[in-house]
Every structure is written in structure tokens, then in C-alpha cells.
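Researcher: Good morning. I'm working through a list of sequences from a screen, and I'd like to move beyond sequence-only analysis. For each chain I'm collecting a predicted structure so we can compare shapes side by side. This is the next one on the list. No need for commentary yet; just the structure.
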Amino acid sequence: MKKMTLKAMAMVALPIMLILASAQIPASGQAKAKRIVGTWRTQGTVINCQNGAAIRTFLGLDVFTDSGSALATGSSNPALTSTGYGAWEHAGGRSFTNTLVAFRFNADGSYAGTQKITRQIELDGSGDQFTSTNSLEIADAAGNVIATACSTETGTRME
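Model: Good morning. C-alpha cells for this chain:
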């Protein structure tokens, strides 16, 4: 009777153990994907898209939430550009994509349009530094793209 009970318990326990083991695989992958989650201090350089020549530098603060949302603000004139709001995705390994949209304003405070930033982000091995290549689309108040730009950026995780 004891043999039968142990055998029955083993038959029930084995599928449960397999289910639990398979549940651990996505969980560890999710942990890697969420390494970008946190607050970052950034420094960027607007560059000429054709030849990579530096045009100007800027500072920023980024927040990546564990829900996939993102916020970013830069040191450019805050009266002319709002905080950027968007989303991020894990692209595999230490790579991430991020898209942000911010409102632009004229000097008199009237709405001028939007700017959309698309970033390709690569974390370093420690997960505490990143580099990104960025593209920017500037749209007028009617939504027509009127200019494009490029930049590079480095980020350091704030602890």
C-alpha cells in the first residue's frame, strides 16, 4: 500500500514540477528585460545625420517603468518643449527600443507641434550604463513632419 501511495504521489508531483520549472524560464527572461527599469541621468549630442558631426550637447533625465512606459525630460528650454512620454520594449539581449513624444511650443506659449524621438538603446554588461542612437521627427501643429535630426546619448543609472 505504501508503494502505491508513493507511486501515485510521484505521478502527481512530476507534472507539477515540470510546470513550475517551465514557469521559471520566462521569469528569468523578464528579469533581464527589466534591467532598463529605473531612473537614468543622460548626456546626449545632436549630430549631423549624414556625417556624424557634433552640433550641440544636452542633458536629460529618463524614467523607464516596469510596465513598459517611459518619461524623458531634457535640458533644452523647458518653456518650449514638454516632458516626453512613451514606451520601451526589450529587443533581445541587452538591446531595447524606446519611442517618446513631446509637445513643442512657440516663444509666445502657443502650440507648435510635436517631436518624436526613437531610440535604439544598448545596456553595458553591468546594466548601469547605456548608449543609444536616436532619430527625431519634428512635426508642425497640423502633424506634418517639417524636420528630422539625429543624436547619440549615454545614460547612467541613478541609485
